[in-house]
Design goal:
mainly beta, Immunoglobulin-like, three-stranded antiparallel sheet, about 0% helix, about 40% strand, FN3_dom
Length: about 200
């Protein structure tokens, strides 16, 4: 980059997160000869946050985030890690892409009252101590699970066989069934572990 004589500050953009850089400068004399490069400083850019889906259901999903570790930085200027606030934006289904602001101590957030079997895109950024917004992360795409369809296969004197399915299927590990009579005199909740590899759920 070249600057006129009067320039005293300049902001470099599009640097890589968590990367070490060395800044060199040189100047042109009045007779238009260039001096040798001289090192001004060494610095490490701030590490970016990474997002992951930690839970997902038919009408809800959870997002968690953490900041990556900086590389070895002995002798380098390091950024202030202080965060003023976080911002999440989710887009999809009936939701409008309105930002959700969260305090700096927050490390996860759960979205509720969503539509089943719907794709959502979540973006994330944070406001630094200096009052600068970081770049938004690439969207994390989440699809809520489809509602299961249950049906009765067999009814006997003392038993009932119930089957269920989803489209697309999910890797369930536990199922809970509630059975009650029409007058509510009988009510029973059954919870059982299931094999997620089984294609037949009953």
């Amino acid at each position: 980059e070249e600057f006129p004589v009067g320039v005293r500050t300049y902001t470099l953009h599009d640097l890589r997160p968590a990367t070490a850089y060395i800044v060199f400068v040189r100047y042109a004399t009045l007779i238009h000869t260039l001096k040798q490069w001289s090192e001004v400083c060494r610095f490490v850019t701030q590490a970016a946050h990474s997002l992951e889906v930690v839970a997902r259901g038919e009408t809800t999903f959870g997002i968690a985030w953490e900041r990556a570790t900086l590389p070895e930085s002995v002798g380098y200027l390091t950024p202030d890690p202080t965060i003023h606030k976080f911002e999440l934006t989710v887009d999809g289904g009936r939701l409008l892409p309105e930002p959700i602001e969260l305090p700096p101590a927050t490390r996860s957030h759960t979205f509720v009252d969503l539509d089943p079997s719907t794709e959502y895109k979540v973006r994330f950024r944070c406001l630094t101590k200096e009052g600068r917004w970081t770049s938004k992360t690439k969207p994390v795409v989440v699809r809520t699970a489809a509602m299961p369809e249950a049906k009765v296969l067999h009814v006997g004197e003392t038993f009932v066989v119930v089957a269920w399915d989803r489209d697309p299927p999910e890797e369930e590990t536990k199922v809970q069934l509630e059975i009650s009579s029409s007058n509510r005199n009988y009510n029973r909740v059954v919870e059982a572990d299931i094999d997620p590899q089984r294609t037949e759920k009953r």
